[in-house]
Every structure is written in C-alpha cells, then in structure tokens.
C-alpha cells in the first residue's frame, strides 16, 4: 500500500502527459495530428479518468484512516538553505483531488461536443489538460514555493484559455486583464511567502505555522510585520478567487469558451485562493486582524457580486458575478473561523456552478445559429426565453443548479450556505445581516436568469420582424422609405436540445448537486457528534479542534430565516420575470409616486449592473489614465531633462569646439587684439575693485 | 517651391485622400449595419469628396484632408465591423455547421430555369 502512496505524483502526471503529447504533436506534426481529432480528445479524457480513479482511491484511503503522507525531495541545497519539492496527501488534498478530477472529466467530455467544429479543437484539449495538471499539482503541494509555481501555471493556463479566440479584440483584452490582475495578486503572494520565510525560516505549511506559534508565544515576532506579510500573502487569494477589489477580471473572463468558464472560473481555479487560505488557516488564526480583513473582504465581495448580478443581460456574466458572490461567502466563512463551512461550500458550489455553466453552454450552442455567434447576441438573455419547451433536459438540470445555489433544501448548497449564514450571524450580526441579505439577492438574480432564459416566449425571432433600423447616419439625418428597404422573410430556426455528449455531463453533475450536501449533515444518531466532512477535515488541521454540537433539527430550525428570504427573492423574480407576469401586473396597480420611485430605483440598479458598480471605470480613470499621465511626465523628463542634459553637454562641446576653432586663426593681429582686450578687462576690474 | 517638391507633395496628398476615403467607407460599414443604408451614406461621402475634386491650392487641400481625418477620428466606431469568418470575427476558426433546417441547393447558373 505504501507503494501506491509514493506514486501520488502520478495524479498530475497523467494529464500533463496528455497535454505534452498533444502539444508536441501540434508543434512538430500539425497536419497529421489534426486528422486524429477524436483520438486526441480520447487520450486526454482517458488519462484524466486514470487520474480520477487514482484520486478516488486516495480519497477512500484517507477517509478510512490512512495517515497523512508527505514525500519531499531536496531540489536546491545550499549551506543552510534547503528548497524541497514533493507532495502532501491529507484529507483536504484528497477531497480537492476528487473535486478537480471529477469536474474536469465532465468538462472534457462536454468539450468534445462543444468544440467539435472548432479548428483549435486539439489545442483546446492540450491547454485543458495542462490546466488540470497544474491544478492537481497545486493541491498536492507541500510548501508555499511549490504552491507558487503551480499558482503561476494555472494563471498562465487561464490566460491561454480565456484568450482562446484571441483574434477577437474583446477576448484578447480579457485574457490580458485576467493575467495582469492576477499578477498583482501573485506579487503580493510572493512578498508574503518571502516575508514568512524571513520570520520562520520555512516554506512548509506545518512547520510554518508551528514555528510561528512558538515565536509568537515567546513574543519574538514583530506583529505588525507579520500582519503585513499575512496581508500580502492574502492578496494572492484575493486576485485568484476574484475578491473585491481584484474581482474585475472574472466577468471579462467569460469571453473564453463555456467549458473553460465551467472548469476554471467556477469550480477549480477560483477555488485555489480559498484552498490556500484554508491551508494557511492555522497561521492566519493567530492573527485576528488578518482574519477580520478576510471576513470583511468576503462579505463585501458577496454583497457586491450579488448586486451587480441583479440586472445583467449576459447569461454568462450573470453566472460569473454569482460565482464572485459565492466565493465571497467562502472567504467570509474562513475569515470567521468556520473552516469546515467554507470548504463545504467550496465543494457544493463547485458542482452546482459547473452544472449551471455547462447548461448555459448548451443554451448558447443552440442560440448561436439563430441569433449569431457574437457573445452580445448568443449570450444575451433578451433574445432567449421559452427554451424549456425546446431544451427540457437542459432546463431541468439548470433548474436543479439554480435551486441548489439559492439554498433551497435538500439541494447541496443549502447545507453549506446555511451553515455559513448561521455562523456569521453568531460571530458578528452585521456580517450575518450582509450574508442573509445577499442570500435573498442570490435567489432573485438566479431565478431571474432562469425565467428569462427558459420561461415565457422565445424572443430570438425578434430579428425577423425588425422594420426600423438601428443604424444612425453619420453625415446628417437619414431619410428613406420603409417600403424601399423591406427585408425578405428569412427561414425560421428554433433552438434544439443539445446532443447526448453534452447532456451526459449535465445529468451526471446533477447527482452531486442534489446529494453532495449530505456529507455535511449532522445526524442525531451519529455517535461522534460530528458530520462526515468535519471528521475528514479535522484530520488535516491538527491545531484546530472542531466539534459540532449543533443537532440536526436545530440546524433545520435555524435554516428557516435563510430559506424564507430565498423564497422572497424567488417570488419577486417570479413577479417581475416569471411567465404570465403581465396577468399579475394588471391586477397590481401601483400609485404613481411609488411607481416613479420604483422606476428610478430600477434605473439605478440597471446602471449599477451595466457599469459594474463603477469600479472598472474608476480603475480605468485612476490607474490606467493616471499611469499614462505619469508616463507622459516621466517621458518628458527623460527626453527633455535627462537626455537634454546629456545632449546639452554634447551641443556645448560641439559649438564650443567650433567657436574655439576660430580663435587660432593664425593672424597675429587677432592674437594681439585678444591680449589687449583681456588686459583692458583686467585693468577695468582692478580699477572697480 | 520646386516642381519636384510640388509633385511629391501632391502625390502625398493623393495618397492621404485615397486612404481617407477607404477608411471612411470602412467606418460607414461599421455604423450602417444594413447594406441599403451603407449605399446611401457611401454615396453622400463620395459626393463630399467629389465636391472638392477641383481644388488646386495645396495648403487648402492639406486643410481639407486634415478636417476629414479629424472628422473620421471623431466618428470612429468603438467596435468596428469585422467579417465573421475573418480574423477578429465571431466565427473565425470556429467552422460552425450549417443548421439542418437550411437546405443548400447547388444549382449554379440554373436560377433562370427555376424562375421559368
């Protein structure tokens, strides 16, 4: 059995091999390998399946009492400095391995159909396998340096995949934005890592927290410096997990193909930040100020994401802001000390959000032939509606994901989100209030998305009946007769259900969306008085003694407010966007003053959503324009002052030489004149003095 | 000004005018989504250029070109139109399949027979 644990490194190796094979094939034999498209995807999926089965095996071993395994090799050895690489296998790692591999396998199977006609099909699988390998390497890392290496790798893969269709300017800008924003976080992360190495002399997670605890006990640490290092280190997860204020890249990342949004920007990469905070949890616990910052960052992110998602018209951007909000919940949970609740929500959210994104991909796939391939059309919910009758399986799976995310029992996210809500309320009522309010907003915007997409009448044929043109005249007023420009009737296309290859992952992901929440349920007859997840995770953090004294029925009773507020959100969404809302609207007549107030409020909400809470505009003005202004000033100083000084010396010596040249004219009379003139000046000076 | 310098200046002005006209047409295509509107606007642009065809004064030509370029810059489209299957287009390298509902009839040159 020890032999298999020594080969845990095989888990990231298999997808890396698949990526290498495809990459080398594309580089050296592009024309040949493009003829074996299905074989390429088969190799990727098969290798990842092997990694998945290995992950399940390690997970089973860990939860049935196998000890924590850590294998290290010396990479750099110089005097007292040792840099080790290897892997750490504990219950947290095994849970993450299972999560990443299962979601990645589903996404790869889905991608086979989604990207089938794309000319970059093989390149896509190459990048996807590389990303999966990097993510698996990250969760297996035993120390901060190895985490940093794989952290950068997943960032690079995210850049390559967001900019997959890089010829489009919006996709090229989006991948650049994601990379630069993550670089800011990575810079902070590196400073934090080096700072903690300076304090403790170690990169290893367990040694780091142990030495830090010892030094803190003997008062041998400058607490301000340690807090600063922790905050710098936290900057990495802030960027990676799209927390405020480094969240701006996540909605733009939706320019990439939808399977990428499902895997990277919903389930795995954005969870890397939560994973790192969870790994550093024993250390952060010793710094209460840092924990406070983490919790408030999470709360603000949750609320901000929810408010921006309220009036989004793009399907994927709505889900992106939803992801941002849920990541805020996870960070809030970790900040208030609810280690298990944060990780529980990570797991339940990953499956639910992956399901939602894959469902949205199915919708986009069917909308593209009808309205066009530009994201402004195929992802625009204004042109959707009534898709449930055309795509019933997609609709029902999407509904399951929506119900889960809204925190409706007995779906997965209910169990995790409710725990966060209760714990945050007990920790600090203001945080609890923010979390509760956000839960209501979540239910509203998620069902708004569902109703706009799947209920009502199909609105994609609005193009057929357009008689008024949207173009404007650029040289003056446009006069033309409508009859002259009547469009011919185009053939009418209707959305169709996705094929079986795309439906299979949707159906499989519905299972964990419904049932995975039960691993966190405390049953009364549990002798340990601890649920499964708490028991598994307790093995990962020896310094944190967790005991769950809350009973099952007490938990359900405490869940009544959160479920109620979710239902309120759903009811409001149903009234505004649900089917037959015009029927309800006729009965409910509002007073004019209230109507005006509601309209101005809704305008504010629409503007808030459209301008992304004005944060992107602020960054554009303050940082980008500010930096460009600074660059102009620096360029001016460099060109006219520094270079001007050097050029001035050159010009001075040039013209000085030219003028000196004429002094030696060879005429004695001019020499005499010069001498007499200088003598005259000398006598004049001495006379004046 | 010598005749060679004059000729060089005139050649530069012709090139600038040609580029300005071509870029104007591309801008109009971005703004005027429907073809019929494009024809109308393109005709107006052509008429505006033709009105200044016989201007001889070099400095006046330079001024007119400068005004045209300033106007073009002012009316630059934030998201210029790209042919979908060209690089930068939404369908580039995606090779989307033709929907089953649309039947492709390969009757090249036999349209007149069908019309009969």
UniProtKB/TrEMBL annotation, chain A:
Domain NADH:quinone oxidoreductase/Mrp antiporter transmembrane, first and last residues per copy: 141-442
Annotated source species: Marchantia polymorpha subsp. ruderalis
Keywords: Chloroplast, Membrane, NAD, NADP, Plastid, Plastoquinone, Quinone, Thylakoid, Translocase, Transmembrane, Transmembrane helix, Transport
Described function: NDH shuttles electrons from NAD(P)H:plastoquinone, via FMN and iron-sulfur (Fe-S) centers, to quinones in the photosynthetic chain and possibly in a chloroplast respiratory chain. The immediate electron acceptor for the enzyme in this species is believed to be plastoquinone. Couples the redox reaction to proton translocation, and thus conserves the redox energy in a proton gradient.
Residue intervals of the NADH:ubiquinone/plastoquinone oxidoreductase chloroplast chain 5 C-terminal domain: 488-638
Family stated for the protein in its record: Belongs to the complex I subunit 5 family.
First-listed, main subcellular location of the protein, grouped into a coarse class: plastid
Top EC class for this record: translocase
Top-level taxon of origin: Eukaryota
GO biological process, one term: ATP synthesis coupled electron transport
GO molecular function (one): quinone binding
Enzyme Commission code: 7.1.1.-
Protein name as it appears in the record: NAD(P)H-quinone oxidoreductase subunit 5, chloroplastic
Domain NADH-Ubiquinone oxidoreductase (complex I) chain 5 N-terminal: 75-125
GO cellular component, one term: chloroplast thylakoid membrane
Catalyses which reaction(s): a plastoquinone + NADH + (n+1) H(+)(in) = a plastoquinol + NAD(+) + n H(+)(out); a plastoquinone + NADPH + (n+1) H(+)(in) = a plastoquinol + NADP(+) + n H(+)(out)
Record note on quaternary structure: NDH is composed of at least 16 different subunits, 5 of which are encoded in the nucleus.
TM spans (from-to): 6-29, 41-60, 85-109, 121-141, 147-167, 179-200, 220-239, 260-281, 287-311, 327-348, 393-412, 424-447, 501-523, 555-577, 636-656, 668-688
Subcellular localization, as worded in the UniProt entry: Plastid, Chloroplast thylakoid membrane
Membrane topology: Multi-pass membrane protein
From TrEMBL, chain B:
Coiled-coil regions, chain positions: none
Membrane topology: Peripheral membrane protein
GO cellular component labels: mitochondrial inner membrane; respiratory chain complex I
Protein name (Swiss-Prot/TrEMBL): NADH dehydrogenase [ubiquinone] 1 beta subcomplex subunit 9
Subunit and interaction comment: Mammalian complex I is composed of 45 different subunits.
Residue ranges constituting the Complex 1 LYR protein domain according to the UniProt record: 19-73
Organism for this UniProt entry: Marchantia polymorpha
GO BP, sorted A to Z: mitochondrial electron transport, NADH to ubiquinone
């Amino acid at each position: 059995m020890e032999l298999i644990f020594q080969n845990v490194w095989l888990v990231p190796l298999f997808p890396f091999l698949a990526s290498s094979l495809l990459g080398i094939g594309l580089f050296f034999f592009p024309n040949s390998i493009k003829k074996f498209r299905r074989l390429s995807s088969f190799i990727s999926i098969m290798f990842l399946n092997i990694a998945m089965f290995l992950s399940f095996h390690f997970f089973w071993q860990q939860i049935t009492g196998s000890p924590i395994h850590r294998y290290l090799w010396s990479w750099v050895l110089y005097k007292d400095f040792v840099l080790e690489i290897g892997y750490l296998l504990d219950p947290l790692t095994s849970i993450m391995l299972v999560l990443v591999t299962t979601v990645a396998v589903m996404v790869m199977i889905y991608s086979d159909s989604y990207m089938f006609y794309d000319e970059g099909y093989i390149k896509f699988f190459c990048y996807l396998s590389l990303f999966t390998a990097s993510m698996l390497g990250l969760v297996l890392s035993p120390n901060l340096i190895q985490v940093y290496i794989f952290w950068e790798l997943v960032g690079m893969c995210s850049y390559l995949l967001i900019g997959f269709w890089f010829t489009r300017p919006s996709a090229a800008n989006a991948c650049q934005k994601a990379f630069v924003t993550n670089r800011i976080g990575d810079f902070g992360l590196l400073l934090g890592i080096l700072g903690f190495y300076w304090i403790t002399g170690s990169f290893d997670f367990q040694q780091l927290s142990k030495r830090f605890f010892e030094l803190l006990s003997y008062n041998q640490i400058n607490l301000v410096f340690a807090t600063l290092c922790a905050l710098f280190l936290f900057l990495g997860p802030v960027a990676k997990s799209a927390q405020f204020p480094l969240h701006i890249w996540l909605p733009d990342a939706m320019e990439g193909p939808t399977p990428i949004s499902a895997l990277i920007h919903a389930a795995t990469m954005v969870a890397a930040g939560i994973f790192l905070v969870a790994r550093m949890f024993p250390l952060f616990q010793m710094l209460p100020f840092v924990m406070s910052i983490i919790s408030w960052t999470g709360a603000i992110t949750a609320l901000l994401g929810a408010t921006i998602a309220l009036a989004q018209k793009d399907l994927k951007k709505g889900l992106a802001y939803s992801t941002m909000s849920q990541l805020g919940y996870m960070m809030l949970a970790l900040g208030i000390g609810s280690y298990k609740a944060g990780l529980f929500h990570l797991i339940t959210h990953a499956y639910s959000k992956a399901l939602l994104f894959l469902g949205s991909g199915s919708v986009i796939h069917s909308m593209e032939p009808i309205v066009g391939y530009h994201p402004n059309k195929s992802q625009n919910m204004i042109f959707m509606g009534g898709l449930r009758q055309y795509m019933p399986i997609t609709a029902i799976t999407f509904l399951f994901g929506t119900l889960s995310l809204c925190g409706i029992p007995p779906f997965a996210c209910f169990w995790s989100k409710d725990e966060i809500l209760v714990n945050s309320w007990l920790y600090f009522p203001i945080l609890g209030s923010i979390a509760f309010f956000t839960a209501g907003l979540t239910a509203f915007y998620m069902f708004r998305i569902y109703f706009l997409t799947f209920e009502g009448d199909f609105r994609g044929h609005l193009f057929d009946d357009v008689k008024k043109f949207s173009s404007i005249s650029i040289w003056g007023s446009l006069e033309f007769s409508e009859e002259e420009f009547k469009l011919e009737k185009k053939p009418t296309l209707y959305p169709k259900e996705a094929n079986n290859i795309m439906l299979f992952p949707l159906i499989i992901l519905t299972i964990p969306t419904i049932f995975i929440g039960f691993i966190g349920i405390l049953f009364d007859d549990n002798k340990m008085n601890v649920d499964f997840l708490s028991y598994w995770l307790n093995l990962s953090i020896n310094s944190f003694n967790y005991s769950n004294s809350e009973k099952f029925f007490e938990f359900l009773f405490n869940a009544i407010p959160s479920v109620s507020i979710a239902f309120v959100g759903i009811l409001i969404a149903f009234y505004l966007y649900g089917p037959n809302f015009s029927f309800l609207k006729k009965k409910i007549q509002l007073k004019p003053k209230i109507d005006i107030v509601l309209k101005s409020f809704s305008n504010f909400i629409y503007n808030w959503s459209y301008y992304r809470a004005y944060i992107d505009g602020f960054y554009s003005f303050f940082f980008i324009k500010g930096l460009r202004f600074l660059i102009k000033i620096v360029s001016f100083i460099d060109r006219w002052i520094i270079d001007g000084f050097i050029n001035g010396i050159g010009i001075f010596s040039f013209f000085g030489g030219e003028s000196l040249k004429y002094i030696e004219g060879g005429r004695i009379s001019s020499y005499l004149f010069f001498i007499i003139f200088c003598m005259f000046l000398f006598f004049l000076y001495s006379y004046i003095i | 000004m010598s005749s060679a310098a004059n000729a060089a200046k005139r050649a530069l002005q012709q090139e600038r005018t040609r580029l300005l006209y071509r870029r104007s047409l591309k801008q109009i295509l971005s703004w005027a989504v429907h073809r019929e509107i494009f024809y109308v606007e393109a005709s107006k642009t052509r008429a505006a250029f033709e009105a200044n065809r016989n201007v001889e004064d070099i400095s006046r030509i330079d001024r007119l070109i400068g005004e045209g370029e300033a106007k073009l810059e002012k009316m630059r489209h934030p998201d210029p139109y790209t042919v979908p299957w060209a690089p930068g287009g939404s369908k580039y390298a995606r090779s989307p399949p033709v929907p089953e509902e649309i039947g492709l009839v390969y009757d090249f040159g036999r349209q007149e027979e069908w019309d009969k």
